[in-house]
Amino acid sequence: MSEQSNTVRLEIVAPERSVMQMDVQEAIIPGVEGLFTVMPGHTPFFTMTRPGAVVAVDPKGEEHFFAVAEGFVEVLEDHIVILPFTVEHEEEIDRDRAEAAQTRAQRRLRQREDDIDFTRAEAALERAYARIQAHSRLHY
Amino acid sequence: MAGLQDIKRRIRSVRNTQKITRAMKMVAAAKLRRAQDSLANVRPYVTHIRGLAERLAARAEEPHPFLEQRSKESPVTLVVITADRGLCGGFNAILVNETLRLLREQFASRTVKLSVVGRRGSETLRRRGAELEAAYSQVDEDSPQRLGRDIANRFMEAYRAEETGEVYCLYNEFRSAINQPLRLERLLPMEWESDRDDPSVDFIYEPSAEDMLNQLLVSYLRVEMNRILREAAASEYGSRMTAMDAATNNAGEVIDRLTLQYNRARQDTITREVIEVVSGAEAL
């Protein structure tokens, strides 16, 4: 195997915005089957994401937070591609809106009137949590 | 010869029309810019999802039904993307003619389930005797997501239930404001060159590869439909912008011609009056 570099290229591509690219030492990604960390030289790996925060650690050791929605992840040896349906950088997150969405979803969940609303409210709640988490720079 | 007043009135009326076409051109240009931006964002996402799905499909143990050929006698679903509004040059007419041609030629021997997006296209096709299974209008122009999703869900369901054997989409691919070639794309079954190689790399899948492939293919079709709607929207605005630009220029030419006519007529009147005065003076 060739010499391992100490960074991997991270790409986040979502339909509503331009591609984000950066080199990272490690990335923490919320997978459907749990949070996982990718470092250079990771085994090739396919999975899906759930709403949550992606933490990208750049070569200087600084952490960058992204709120992502459901999507797909492909991890290759020197390359990570995350394809979420939506993504926001921590600085773009509208905290007030996320909190309002959270309270609204919680209220709907307490009322539990019909099932369709229930699943939608649950998803909305997860996305609101993801935004708040990324905005607060929390790992989980 | 038309009277001075008549010519003046015509000039005024053409000038008003020109104001309208110029405004429409401007609106179309602004919308086109937005549509182009959103298209530029969705294209790489589609490419990535597709690449991922292709690589996963090539390694799948059991072929997914979305990738398997079906009998050529089975019914076909044809989705045509037209505009809700006119005044965009030949945009809708070309789509309608091509649809009718497909029904007459390529799909002549098969049952065709026709779905049309856009009021213009669905109205014209109905009037010209085509039977539509579904007609959509792009009322929320800014959210092609929901529409794309609905359409994709519907044809995937029909395909799974074996009510349809192939799904095609006819739309304009946006290249530039003046170049939007028609494309007939087969969405189902997917046409992929599945190079079944590279089994050496051991991949880990969470959840299973089959689940992932299924989810990927479903997501791919939804987002692909979304992309197609955006391609069509950008093409429509481009087409309208070009058409309205031409209309504004034509109106300018008409105004120039009428102004010339008006000046000539005015000159004639003056000349005639001068002659009258002169000959009147001579008579004295």
Describe the structure.
The complex is a heterodimer of chains A (140) and B (284). By secondary structure, chain A is of the alpha+beta class. Chain A has 2 helices and 10 strands. Chain A has 2 domains: 8-90, F0F1 ATP synthase delta/epsilon subunit, N-terminal (ATP Synthase, domain 1, Sandwich); 92-136, ATP synthase delta/epsilon subunit, C-terminal domain (Single alpha-helices involved in coiled-coils or other helix-helix interfaces). In chain A, strand 8 and strand 9 (79-84) form a beta hairpin. Chain A is elongated and about 55 Å long. By secondary structure, chain B is of the alpha/beta class. Chain B has 2 domains: 2-21 and 247-283, ATP synthase, gamma subunit, helix hairpin domain (Helix Hairpins), CATH 1.10.287.80; 26-242, Pyruvate Kinase, Chain: A, domain 1, CATH 3.40.1380.10. Chain B has helices at 4-59, 91-104, 119-127, 144-160, 209-283, and strands at 76-81, 112-117, 132-136, 166-172, 182-188, 204-206. In chain B, helix 1 (4-59) runs antiparallel to helix 5 and helix 2 (91-104) crosses helix 3. Chain B is elongated and about 115 Å long. The mean pLDDT of chain B is 89. Chains A and B meet through strand 5 of A and helix 1, strand 6 and helix 5 of B.
Count of helical regions of chain B? 5
Distance between the termini of chain B: 32 Å
| Poorly predicted residue ranges of chain B | none
- The total count of strands of chain B amounts to 6
- Strand-residue proportion of chain A: 35-45%
Q: What is the arithmetic mean of pLDDT of chain B? A: 89
The name of the CATH architecture of the largest domain in chain A is: Sandwich
For this structure, what is the CATH class of the largest domain in chain B?
Alpha Beta
Strand order of the largest sheet of chain B: 3-2-1-4-5
Q: Which regions of chain A contain 5 or more consecutive residues with pLDDT less than 50?
A: none
Give the helix level of chain A as a range of percent. Answer: 25-40%
CATH superfamily of the largest domain in chain B: ATP synthase, F1 complex, gamma subunit
Strands in their spatial order, largest beta sheet of chain A:
2-1-9-8-5
CATH topology of the largest domain in chain A: ATP Synthase, domain 1
Q: Sheet with the most strands of chain B?
A: 5 strands, mixed
Proportion of beta-strand residues of chain B: 5-15%
> Counting H and I runs of at least 4 residues, what is the number of helices of chain A?
2
Give me the secondary-structure category of chain B: alpha/beta
Shape category of chain A: elongated
Rg from alpha-carbon coordinates of chain A: 16 Å
CATH structural fold name of the largest domain in chain B? Pyruvate Kinase, Chain: A, domain 1
